[in-house]
Amino acid sequence: MRDVSHHPIFQALQKIIHDAADVIMEIYQRADLGIEQKSDHSPVTAADIAAHRTILAGLNAMAPDVPVLSEEGVVPFEERSQWPLLWIVDPLDGTKEFIKRNGEFSINIALVENGVPILGMVYLPTTSEGYFGVTQSWRDLPLGAVKWQGHEVESINVRKPNTPLIAMTSRSHGPSLPVELKDELKARYQSVREIPKGSSIKACRIAEGVADLHLRRGPTSEWDTAAQQAIVEAAGGMLVSPKGLPFRYNQRETLLNGHFFVSGPEIAPNVMAWYQQKADEEE
């Protein structure tokens, strides 16, 4: 990837996501996180709302012609179905981890065109790590993926798995790999190490080449996956359904995703074969 650090779009998005991180971390230090329950019984905090407002204002100023779909600003399908280009935002991915104060939460911003995530940015406020990926050029952005921390910006790519194979598992949603799949991976890669993390951190670790696989079998929404999918794909990996199909966005009334996994291209056939075997056994 060409040096993206001086590109105005990267700089504008980076400022927006840093500003959102600042408001999140200010609330994170408070004794009262302003926790409430949404209609689906999932938690929302004052940080979710404050970050949403910060990101919405920033995106509207940067690209006023591009509408925004946010977890904290859901739009009816009748309206958003008319949007060929839109931002999909999770102002605070990992609200449960935020409430637990374990630091494993992120901010996700994706640009989606005709269902395809063409740009993604994820930022981890507690570690100041940021990830950015472009799969289709927009406003002359170069293709590829980078990670930044402070002023250092480096290109990233998924890796060829070795021993031990490292699987990122969910902190709060079914943390372990299925035993049968783990045994198959052990037979191929000798050993498997599982590391639990929250939010989009798992996919970002795969994109930067320090982990190999994440299997998600619990519910997620489009704002959870759009940004990380763009970053992983830009880094040479894949976020796909059990049949190997990449997710598409803003194409249905529901915003819920099905099961998926994240990996480099080498491991994917093993995972898809395991899913197919499970499907055959259930018939």
From TrEMBL:
EC nos: 3.1.3.7
Binding residues annotated for substrate, in chain numbering: 71, 92-95, 224
Gene Ontology BP terms: 3'-phosphoadenosine 5'-phosphosulfate metabolic process; sulfate assimilation
Membrane topology: Peripheral membrane protein
Record key words, sorted: Cell inner membrane, Cell membrane, Hydrolase, Magnesium, Membrane, Metal-binding
Main location: membrane
Binding site for Mg(2+) 1: 71, 90, 92, 224
Location within or outside the cell: Cell inner membrane
Protein function: Converts adenosine-3',5'-bisphosphate (PAP) to AMP.
Protein name: 3'(2'),5'-bisphosphate nucleotidase CysQ
Organism (species): Marinomonas pollencensis
Gene giving rise to this polypeptide: cysQ
